[in-house]
Amino acid sequence: MGNDSIFVNSNFGGIPPEISDWEKSRFVVLPVPYDHTTSFQQGTRKGPKAAIEASAYMELYDDELNIEPCDAGIHTLGQLEVSIDSDETIDRIQKVAADILNAGKIPVTIGGEHSITFGVVKALNEKYNDFSVLQFDAHADLRKEYQGLGLSHACVMRRISELGLKIVQVGIRSMSKEEAEFLQKADNIFTYYAANIMDSDEWMEEAAAHLSGNIYITIDVDAFDPAYVPATGTPEPGGLDWYQVIRLLKKVSAKCNIIGFDAVELSPIPGQPSSDFLVAKLLYKLMGYTLAAK
Question: What is the CATH code for 12-293?
């Protein structure tokens, strides 16, 4: 399982074999190049490779935490073989995520479109009796179905909500009427709209209060303002900035036990690697926060 490679020097962070060995690694990176249900611009299938390539040029020392998170071990799997059949792809993700979890490691998934999150969450739901999901996103992703598919990127949080999990959404600024009506009735979803959280951080305490114990974090990169991440399939104006996201992640990681996380919807733009670097740095920062909280 741990011997596949994506390309030459495929380890996240470009780290050497002695700290990327499967047996010794605390984190396992799972690249999922899937974008079958993308509704506007395709290209997220190229996101995992771009983020991992960019990560090789990061500084591995975290000056805020005064640690090198990679010392805990980061193993990078080969790209998951995906299918045009959504159910089959989700099943494959669930199986690999279950293997990671059963080995006592933390799954770090890189997409690919947002529907892939459901496969990881299903695996987590089999292992943990109780956990919550923190979602960074421009879109609610709560449609019952989209373009005839129930396992669409536009439906992923609806599927997760149906598992009975508590969800905290941050950065939302686009949804359908159907989703708005669903939210009015949902008692397990707490939504923080981008327009209401830009002027202060006071809302963060309340958001963090909805999360406790174990949490999974899913980051659709379109949660960021397009000025920070232009490389995404459906960019929405008025999004979050880097330090705002980091402040919430730091607060939540100090309060909760992070059991996994992902970054999805990166659609690389040739010759403009800034978005790729942001995703790589964000995942590495989350690894650091996870370790610091321990």
Answer: 3.40.800.10
